[in-house]
Amino acid sequence: MTAIILILAAVVIYFISYNTYGKFISGKISIDDNHETPSHTQYDGVDYIPAKSPILLGHHFASIAGAGPIVGPVIAVAFGWIPVYVWILIGAVFIGGVHDYTTIIASVRHKSKSIGQIIEAYIGISGKRMFLFFAWATLILIIAVFAIIVGDTFTSIPAVGTSAILFILLAIVFGLTIYRFNIPLWIATIIGVTLLFLSAYAGQVFPIYLSKELWMIIIFAYIFVASITPVWILLQPRDYLNSFFLYAILILGVLGIIFAAPALNVPTFTQFHLDKLGFLFPALFVTVACGAISGFHSIVASGTTAKQLDKESDARLIGYGGMLIEGVLAVLAMIAVASLDHDVFLNTLQNNGPVAAFSLGVGNFISAVPVLNLSFEAAQAFAALAVAAFALTTLDTATRLARYSFQEFFEVSTKEENPKWNNRFTATAVSVFVGIALTFSGQTMAIWPIFGSANQMLAALALLAITVWLSHLKKSYTFTIIPMYFMFAVTLAALLMLFYNNLVHNNNIVLALISLFLFLLAIVLGVKAYKAIRLEESLIKPIT
Q: What is 3-539's CATH number?
């Protein structure tokens, strides 16, 4: 099977799914634009701000994508390309898209609070506290890991550091032109995107050479400011403009596949067990998260996106559509490395990492587009720059979401009207400080293997909360409870394997205990949710 058929089949399947299954979900959750969204009813000029759907799609897509839909599929191709491809297609349509779309709407119907708020409403305060603590801890891990990734990237590729600084300045100007000077969006977009790509070129001409330590100081200072600054000034416009980087990678990558017509050189399937990844189940479904389903998406959807949703009907494009676009990116990443010589792929992955392998494959595709007339080196550098830019997007978004989780935790932990722990400055400071401590502890990468399981457990818990919410509304929840069962099976199996391996083979008691704690947390919340659903069903049978 050629790469052209794979990528075109994915696009067609996703297009049909958006217009069929996406509409089916809309009916199940009763989308109604007469319901005024919290971006209007709770407008505060900082977090709650209505955004036009193209801007919010760009912001949401940039936040959920990052390097996730690239790194996961690249690593998982070690199992062979067929399992990865099938999981991305099925996962995005029936699990990830459902997860993201319903999370946005459920959050909007609960004053755009996090999934923790829904858990509190239908499962209890203790359930909410457990969820918020777990979500905050996961986000801190993301902050620490991505700070290291971004710092390493800026140090090793100085041009990217320059471009990132210019992106930030450009975003501020773009936000002001849209929200304060009322420049039409299409005019601002044309100018902004042009300057965006010029900024990428300027980075090549004027690279900034700084030590990693200095870059780390700048990065942590930046994410603190980004977390407390009104979203329209920096995060929303920067993510919107940066999303054009990914759109460009997607479009040029697909065109490149059509012109290059590459063969797939990695095996269709290798074996059910790999030394570094483990068994196909559950390793595949934990490794390939973004692109199929990711718990991080639920925090983004209910953390920043729901606070900016202008009207409910926009959620299908942003939630379900955004997930399907990410699925296309994941398929592109898979094809990019599957088209490489197998030995070249393995050597690049081992010595330079998944982003380098992706850039190598996509560089081959983009350089094959005749109208661009780009050299392979230029095309490869462009792909690497796009991925690096989105790693920074993930970093500042995670910081803001950690702040939200921290604030919501203390909303239920104190009766004070304005507790000192519940303001955005304190919540951000604590989150950034813990992130800094973890970053410089030297233990971040050692804990990283648990992150995949923790991330997917967030997805399972989000689907659990949505299912309980739908049960309370006396609506059919089959389309959420089946994905929920599957994700719980994946997560619990992965955590048990991590517990066993760390306890028996790696002799790492700390990681073994963390795995066991997460396993028990999932069981406790699952039992609480089951009781809540059974209680609702004992009162009135859900409408089917």
A: 1.20.1740.10
pLDDT of 537: 63
Q: Residue 473 is encoded by which pair of tokens?
A: 């509304």
pTM here is: 0.87
Determine contact, residues 234/175, Cβ cutoff 8 Å: yes
266-281 mean pLDDT: 88
Choose among 100, 34, 40: nearest CA to 480: 100
Cβ distance 58 to 241 under 8 Å? Answer: yes
Of the candidates 320, 283, 327, 286, the residue with the CA atom closest to the CA atom of residue 6:
327
The residue ranges of every structural domain in the chain are 3-539
Per-residue pLDDT at 178 exceeds 50: yes
Span 231-248, pLDDT tens digits:
888 888 888 888 888 888
Helices marked H in 292-423: 295-300, 314-315, 322-338, 342-352, 354-366, 376-411
Residues 6+ apart with CB under 8 A from 435: 140, 143, 144, 147, 220, 399, 402
**54 contact partners, CB below 8 Å, separation of at least 6:** 185, 240
Ramachandran angles phi, psi of 45, nearest 5° = 75, 0
Mean pLDDT of 368-384: 83
Place of tokens 């070249």: 344
Give the sign of the dihedral formed by CA 242, CA 329, CA 190, CA 199: positive
